[in-house]
Specification:
By secondary structure, this protein is an alpha/beta fold. Helices cover about 35% and strands about 20% of the residues. The protein is built from five helices and seven strands; from the N terminus they run αβββαβββαβαα.
Length: about 210
């Protein structure tokens, strides 16, 4: 029973002495925010990019989502925090960093903040990287409206006709000839009445002659 108790006390100590501590993410007392990217620091050494660096260099380990199978190895980045700016180089991969997060070398972290803070939040971008510019061709149509004023001018011309004497005589002769050649409707019945009267008178004379004989 005593042996079992001793083993229970000794075994955790033995296993703990063989656990290798992970370099990345030295978390201590809280964090400070001036951006949305998480920054921590680690013990720099042999990096995933194949080189060996020291804590005195401004180098970082990049988060897995942006690691891109090492495509961003040795690229320069610009980091800003609390009004301070510094450039650093990507030399390693940070397996436990969140998307957008970085692990700094100790000297780089110390440039921005006391290492006792443990974690800070800032912003960073690749040096020389530019967002994709979207070009939009804007066609501006300008409409010109011209106002026309229509002015109507009324002109009255007075014409005075002065017929010549020849024209008046000709018109008078024509009117007279037409009047003589064409009987008016009132003359027709009168002539017929006179003809009937004459005919009756003639018949009366014939009758009287016959009676006298």
């Amino acid at each position: 029973m005593l042996c079992l108790s001793l083993l229970a006390l000794v075994l955790p100590t033995v296993f703990a002495s063989h656990i290798v501590p992970r370099n990345h993410h030295h978390h201590k007392r809280g964090d400070a925010h001036t951006g949305d990217k998480l920054f921590s620091f680690y013990a720099v050494g042999l990096g995933a990019c194949g080189g060996t660096n020291s804590d005195s260099e401004y180098v970082v380990a990049l988060n897995v989502p942006q690691w891109n199978n090492g495509a961003n190895c040795n690229k320069e980045i610009t980091i800003t925090y609390n009004g301070k700016t510094a450039n650093a180089k990507i030399v390693d991969e940070c397996m436990s960093c969140p998307d957008g997060g970085l692990d700094f070398s100790t000297s780089l972290f110390n440039f921005f903040e006391d290492p006792d803070v443990g974690i800070i939040h800032g912003d960073w971008s690749f040096v020389g990287s530019q967002p994709i510019a979207t070009t939009q061709d804007t066609i501006t149509t300008t409409s010109h409206t011209t106002s026309h004023s229509s002015t109507t001018t009324s002109t009255k011309t007075k014409t005075t006709a002065r017929p010549t004497t020849k024209s008046s005589s000709s018109a008078s002769s024509t009117a007279t000839s037409s009047s003589a050649a064409t009987p008016t409707p009132s003359q027709g019945p009168q002539i017929l009445t006179e003809f009937s009267n004459n005919l009756m008178g003639l018949l009366g004379l014939v009758v009287q002659g016959a009676q006298a004989a």
